[in-house]
């Protein structure tokens, strides 16, 4: 069934704004990024809520900041290298007499090397406030970038997708007893997005004005007059985090944290680039630059971590993390004058990530670590798009810490992510179909330095 003319005329805004949240992350499923600590990465993110000697706990579990006994500054950067390849085919103007096979290649490798930075500081207080620890972190918890060749077979669904989020987290922890602490944090989040996709203006003209396509040697028709829709938008939102840490024995530590949802009202502008052959027929229409927006809720997360020291040199960690992706069911796109534009279906489901890691102190200078994790996808075969060719994945990590001296330590980590091949079978807003399969993987290279005053 073809979309109505009204929907066809307005779907570029819908595709762009909804595309902000249908954007895949190589670091984790959905559009989540966990890479705020190279030390955690080396354990496949196991033990993130009970980390020792790691200032990244500011946002992973503020209660664990009490593990640091002096002011500590930490800087992390992880380069995420996503590789993907599409195999399949498509049909332009599917379901109409004008239907014909889609032209174009497989899009090339949509991934690129993307750095993800984080900066943390933890400050234990003294005197009358000696049980209080404060912390702050800048991090990027959501978003990445993909870009296909502009003339690829799925160009009407996606070309460029770039999402950037920056979080400022301010946290405090209180050590209630020698073995139990609680913590809380305030999260200020800024989100920016840029998205592009091709628009089949030639096919649109034929559906709007069939007589125009009946003329011999007409320039109109599916894939004969492609244009471009570009959407840019941004917003800020506020959230919070709560957590606790309990150490029932000297060897066992248990931590839990909850990060809240953060609501965004994305505000953006869609810009159309129209070929000269169709521009006169589309003058003074919704295919001129226009504002639009949509509500977006980034998901809450619940993390349970356990760490056990089998000896003074050897420790193992476990993480179970739930991400509440059910907040992303549909996205309703509205113009700023209140007119409904479109409703995009996602129907995402909550996911679980399980991680098991270990680390071994070779000596006072060097610590080796490794881990494996299983991460579920929130997507499904019915609504999956090439903006998010996501599926379940397995993470394999190794890492190393070098304690240069009593103040400075340096961490390095490598993670290989194997992604189950996802299927795509969708109809674009230009009325074309795309059917096929993606195969991909990702490599994560991380390095960090931490200084303890």
UniProtKB/TrEMBL annotation:
Record's GO cellular component terms: cell outer membrane
Any Pfam family matching the protein: Toluene_X
UniProt key word Transmembrane: yes
Predominant cellular place of this UniProt entry's protein: membrane
Annotated membrane topology: Multi-pass membrane protein
The organism's place on the tree of life at top rank: Bacteria
Molecular function via GO: long-chain fatty acid transporting porin activity
The keyword Calcium is assigned to this record: no
SUPFAM superfamilies registered for this protein in UniProt: Porins
Keywords, ordered alphabetically: Cell outer membrane, Membrane, Signal, Transmembrane, Transmembrane beta strand
InterPro entries assigned to the protein according to its UniProt record, in alphabetical order: OMPP1/FadL/TodX
Subcellular localization: Cell outer membrane
Family assignment from sequence similarity: Belongs to the OmpP1/FadL family.
Protein name in the entry: Outer membrane protein, FadL family
Taxonomic source organism: Lysobacter enzymogenes
């Amino acid at each position: 069934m073809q979309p109505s003319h009204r929907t066809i005329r307005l779907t570029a805004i819908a595709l762009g704004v909804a595309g902000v949240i249908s954007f895949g992350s190589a670091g984790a499923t959905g559009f989540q990024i966990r890479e705020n600590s190279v030390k955690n990465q080396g354990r496949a993110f196991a033990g993130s809520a009970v980390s020792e000697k790691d200032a990244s706990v500011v946002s992973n579990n503020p209660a664990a900041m009490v593990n640091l006994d002096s002011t500590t500054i930490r800087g992390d950067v992880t380069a995420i290298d996503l590789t993907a390849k599409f195999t399949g085919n498509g049909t332009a103007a599917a379901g109409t007499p004008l239907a014909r096979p889609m032209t174009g290649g497989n899009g090339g490798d949509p991934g690129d090397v993307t750095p993800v930075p984080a900066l943390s500081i933890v400050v234990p207080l003294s005197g009358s406030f000696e049980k209080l620890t404060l912390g702050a972190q800048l991090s990027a918890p959501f978003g990445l970038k993909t870009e296909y060749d502009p003339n690829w077979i799925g160009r009407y669904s996606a070309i460029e997708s770039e999402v950037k989020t920056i979080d400022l987290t301010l946290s405090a922890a209180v050590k209630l007893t020698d073995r139990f602490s609680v913590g809380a944090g305030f999260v200020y989040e800024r989100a920016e997005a840029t998205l592009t996709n091709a628009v089949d203006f030639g096919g649109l003209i034929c559906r709007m004005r069939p007589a125009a396509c009946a003329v011999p040697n007409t320039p109109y028709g599916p894939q004969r007059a492609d244009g471009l829709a570009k959407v840019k938008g941004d917003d800020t939102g506020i959230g919070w985090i709560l957590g606790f840490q309990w150490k029932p024995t000297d060897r066992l530590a248990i931590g839990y944290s909850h990060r809240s949802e953060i609501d965004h009202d994305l505000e953006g502008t869609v810009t159309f680039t129209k070929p000269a052959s169709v521009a006169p027929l589309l003058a003074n229409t919704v295919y001129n630059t226009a504002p639009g927006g949509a509500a977006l809720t980034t998901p809450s997360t619940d993390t349970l971590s356990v760490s056990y020291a089998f000896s003074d040199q050897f420790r193992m960690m476990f993480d179970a993390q739930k991400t509440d992706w059910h907040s992303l069911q549909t996205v309703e796109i509205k113009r700023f004058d209140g007119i409904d534009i479109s409703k995009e279906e996602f129907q995402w489901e909550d996911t679980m990530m399980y991680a098991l890691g270990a680390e071994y102190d070779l000596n006072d200078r060097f610590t080796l670590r490794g881990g494996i994790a299983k991460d579920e996808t929130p997507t499904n075969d019915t609504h999956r798009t090439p903006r998010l060719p996501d599926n379940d994945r397995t993470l394999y990590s190794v890492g190393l810490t070098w304690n240069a001296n009593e103040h400075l330590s340096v961490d390095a980590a490598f993670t290989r992510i194997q992604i189950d091949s996802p299927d795509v079978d969708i109809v674009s807003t230009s009325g074309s179909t795309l059917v096929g399969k993606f195969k991909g993987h990702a490599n994560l290279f991380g390095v960090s330095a931490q200084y303890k005053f």
